[in-house]
Amino acid sequence: MKKILYLITQSELGGAQKYVLDLATALQDDFAIIVAFGEQGAEGDLAKKLKSAKAVYYTIPHLKRRISPLNDLLAAWEIAQLIKRIKPDIIHLNSTKISILGSLAAKILHIFAIRNIRVIYTVHGWVFNEPLPGSLKLFYKFAEKFTAGAKDKIICVSAYDRQTARKEKIAPLEKFVTIHNGLARPDFLPPREARQRLSDRIKTPLAENTRLIGSIGNLYPTKGYEYLLAAAARLAEKDQSLCFVIIGEGPARPELEKIIKAKKLEKIVCLTGRIADAPSLLPAFDLYVCSSVKEGLSYTVMEAMAAGRPIVATAVGGNPELIADGETGDLAPARDGQCLAEKIAYALAHPDRTKTLAARAREKISTEFSLDTMIKKTREIYEEKSA
Hints:
Residues 14-182 form the Glycosyltransferase subfamily 4-like N-terminal domain. The chain folds into two domains: 3-182 and 370-383, 3-Layer(aba) Sandwich (Rossmann fold); 191-368, Glycogen Phosphorylase B (Rossmann fold, 3-Layer(aba) Sandwich). A seven-stranded parallel beta sheet has the order 3-2-1-4-5-6-7, sandwiched between helices. α8 (225-236) packs across α12 (337-349). It is of the alpha/beta class. It is globular, with a radius of gyration of 21 Å. It has 14 helices and 13 strands.
């Protein structure tokens, strides 16, 4: 039985962590599965869900999301030691930071003839597409190109990411394969119950005519929530029935709270923090909004599609592969609060149209983006023989 070591930077549950969790739990009977991560460690939601699934996991104490030369050096050493101890046949890297450190550790071990390991890397959106200083973007492009030689296969979760790799000449195109994220339909609460639970969470009674605009995601700059707040401010001037709910937590919270206060949005915008099984609450929303400035292939958009919610999303990353503008939802340009507001207003003003689009989206997600398909195609990558 082949042994697979999944490496990921954080155990805070986000899209990349959900991807690892889905694969690790689905393939436990076919492979010996081990997962290792850094920041948040055993306290992160990924660790808790792996423990519940009786999956084996390790923590990498010095592995942090932010660049830190000393911590990064120590983390690379810890990864190398873990690889030597576990002796995996395959290392599956997830996220840019761990892809750099993990592939270097595997390459060094290979050079010293300690272990010949197949290295696979899944790109959950190229980090150099994030809102970063130009020098840091260049660094990440160089790092991706430099470490690509140590990777046997690079999985892109969207065609957009594969096209970006080709444009930036990250690695020979034959190294890349596109495997879309797959979704197992979440257990959704009935709309009325979901709405009541959300009302209890935000500690605010919701009037019958209140229309809920929702978004789910970690509070990172990549999620573009400042543009959603700009849209909320514009819409609130004309419509007092709206309530914007953002489910998630993260380092951008202080800045978002400043914007909410400055724009006097306290009565119509709520940052709930993390909510366990947040997707189950999606039926509470009258409209789902993804305001991201960078995405791979958004699980939350996929979940909103499965819930039959009308969707407005930014045209970034793999979003246009999920949402065909005017067919399964509406797309807006990134970093444009005014246009986002206009798209939201139009969707709310035409409920029959948005209901039709939402029904098409639900059909699309169930037929084209299944978890079984993702697992099958990834398994085929694992079973390929080393070159």
